[in-house]
């Protein structure tokens, strides 16, 4: 999660919402890491989680990520939660809850919902205060500079 926070910081410095993601395999080896790139890429799907899932699939040569863990600084949105389920991710570890768009526990629960064909283990609130503070500080500064 500390590496995900570093990636998030870098995203924030170039104008993207500071969210970072790291995927490790069953041997705790890093397969992929990414940060939000929506503004940089002008791509609404360039969320940290989606970019990391793409990298991990390429790295493995297989989109099934059953034995992998994703660490992400913010609770995934509906798009990302759907991608996590479709990738057959083994475990999700996230930092701050997203009270507006969280689709794992806060607003929706896609992974445990009736439309999910895969159940993943979820641990939320890991380094939540650091993750939340990073996001709040970025949004505060972002509002002031607009």
Give average pLDDT, whole number: 97
Individual helix count: 5
| Helix/strand order | HEEHHEHEEH
Broad structural category:
alpha/beta
Binned strand content: 15-25%
Q: Record the strand order, biggest sheet.
A: 2-1-3-4-5
Largest sheet: 5 strands, mixed
- Cα-atom radius of gyration: 14 Å
Q: Into which percent range does the helicity of residues fall?
A: 25-40%
Number of strands: 5
End-to-end span in angstroms? 30 Å
Query: Which segments are poorly predicted (pLDDT under 50) over 5 or more consecutive residues?
Result: none
Secondary structure layout:
Layout: H1 2-13, E1 20-24, E2 30-35, H2 38-41, H3 48-60, E3 69-74, H4 78-86, E4 91-96, E5 121-123, H5 128-145
Parallel strand pairs: 3-4, 4-5
Antiparallel strand pairs: 1-2, 1-3
Helix pairs in contact: 1-5
Short description:
The chain is an alpha/beta fold and 146 residues long. Helix content is 38%, strand content 18%.
Structure commentary:
The protein is an alpha/beta fold and 146 residues long. Helix content is 38%, strand content 18%. The protein is built from 5 helices and 5 strands. The chain has helices spanning 2-13, 38-41, 48-60, 78-86, 128-145; strands spanning 20-24, 30-35, 69-74, 91-96, 121-123. A 5-stranded mixed sheet has the order 2-1-3-4-5. β1 and β2 (30-35) form a beta hairpin. The protein is globular. The model has no long low-confidence stretch (mean pLDDT 97). It comes from Romeriopsis navalis LEGE 11480. Homodimer. InterPro entries: APOBEC/CMP_deaminase_Zn-bd, CMP_dCMP_dom, Cytidine_deaminase-like, MafB19-deam, tRNA_aden_deaminase. It holds the Pfam family MafB19-deam. One of its GO terms (molecular function) is zinc ion binding.
């Amino acid at each position: 999660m500390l590496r995900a926070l570093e990636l998030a910081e870098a995203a924030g410095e170039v104008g993207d919402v500071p969210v970072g993601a790291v995927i490790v395999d069953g041997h705790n080896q890093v397969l992929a890491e990414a940060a939000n790139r929506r503004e940089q890429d002008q791509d609404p799907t360039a969320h940290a989680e989606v970019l990391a899932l793409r990298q991990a699939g390429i790295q493995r040569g297989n989109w099934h990520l059953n034995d992998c863990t994703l660490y992400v600084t913010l609770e995934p949105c509906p798009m990302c939660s759907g991608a996590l389920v479709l990738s057959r991710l083994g475990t999700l570890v996230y930092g701050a809850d997203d009270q507006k768009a969280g689709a794992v526990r806060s607003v929706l629960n896609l992974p445990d919902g009736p439309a999910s064909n895969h159940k993943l283990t979820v641990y939320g609130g890991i380094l939540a205060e650091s993750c939340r503070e990073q996001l709040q500080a970025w949004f505060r500064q972002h509002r002031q500079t607009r």
